[in-house]
Queue: 2 jobs
Job 1
Amino acid sequence: MRGSASGTVDIIYTGTSFAGSIHKPLAISGAPFMVRDFNHWKSYRDSKLFRDIAKGYEDKTKHKIMALTYYGERMVTANKEIKKPEDMKGMKLRVPPAPLYLMLAKSVGANATPIAFAEVYLALQQGTVDGQENPLPTIMAKKFYEVQSHVMLTGHIIESLLTITGSHVWSKASDADKKVFEEVMVQAAAKSSDQIRESEQKIADQLRKLGKTVVEVDREAFRKAAIPLHNDAAAGAGWSRAEYDALQALK
């Protein structure tokens, strides 16, 4: 994030769930098992659907959404093997206190336990919670593997970051500058996305070398458990059925 001399924000990188608190459809890609895989995510990033949803946010805020960056698949860790949704029934799962993370817990019958991120390691160590979920780079960086024996490759949520330029900057730029600026931001996001994906795919092997049990789960079973909540407003869905169908139709 970069600030201007006046203290206002020029550019921010923010999660889709956060931006979705202002324009709910923006959070659609962050629902559990909403996006099938990295290629499906790229199709969404490059789609008219994403641009139309982004325009809804832009119309509300006057800020400009420049690009979407892949930020990794979220995986579950625990001190037991989890292969299917039923294996999570009743477990105390630390999740961020946001609707779409709670949707995962609801879909598998886990007890969602919101705990501040800084306190997760201690909560796992002391058994306050049975497990947590985060992208593999976070699991490595925060050393959650030290207090969890199993890493489940659920890939239940694909995290994305939005690059957003403040209205006070965008409104003053010339058409030529806007074109160049947007092209550069899109290229940077695409390069970062590919690098993050490449890095992410190496971490499972690193965890195995550390003696962790890395589990390939039945992702289709998890997906089937989540689908009934995908358009449930009470579970956090804030998009239209047409937007949902358009996302699912992307190859």
Job 2
Amino acid sequence: MQNRSFVNEFVLLGISQNPDVQKVLFVLFLLVYLATVSGNLLIVVTIFNSPALVGSPMYFFLAFLSSIDVCVSSVVAPKIIVEFLSEKKTISFAGCMIQIFFFHLFAGVEVIVLTAMAFDRYVAICKPLHYTTIMNSRLCNILIGVAWAGGLVHSTIQNAFASQLPLCGPNIINHFMCDLYPLMKLSCANNDEFGPLVASSSGLFCILIFSILLVSYGVILFSIRGHSIEGQRKALSTCGSHIAVVILFFGPCTFEYARPPMVFSFDKMVEIFYSMLTPLLNPVIYTFRNKEVKNAISKFWNTSMANLCKK
């Protein structure tokens, strides 16, 4: 333990050192976080309170994705928001390791859930007669279990890398959160050993899954050529939402981890988009492009308002 690190806490430089800018960012980030949590929870509650949606594997995965988006955002956003009003922006070594663990845990789970959603759409469009047989509740629960197991393995590996970095000081992280590359910038050892490990465990994983998803959606779009116009429209609408979410998630993820261990000036903006804006945009994309979800939300809202008025 003594050979590993002499650093007990880190100073986070955050996004800006200007007090006036920090006040503006506090309001902006607070609104984004509240919108993210409320939007995603609205989708979860709506799906589980709608008989037409709750039994569908697609909406089962969508509800789970929304709950994971809340978790991903909650690992990062609350501390950033508090730090905008704090003079001393620090995080302990243990707190840093915990943040890395849970951020990569939920991100790893989301990667596998997005893959499961692509598989669900493939079965629904390419094998419609066997859809209910293949995508039964048992398989859906197995896929969710695989997602948690995969996320746990991924985050454990990342934490193992981070905890073994020899950090001899200084303890200033030019970032708003703890992550692998900012920590490697503080390492007093040769990062030629750790850099390829991070790139292979995170970056290669992102590229591989992203490529598989793009190929799978290509197969789906190719297979609907013989469908009716209405069938093509519905398939394109559903797949369009998934493809948009996949690109929003994997684009920043690939940039962040599928590269040499360097720190760029715009890394903070990419991380903000990846950890806060993508979870905010996901419910917007699925809601505005899906008539069933919009109708279910409208019905749930009207029912809730009617019940409140009766009370």
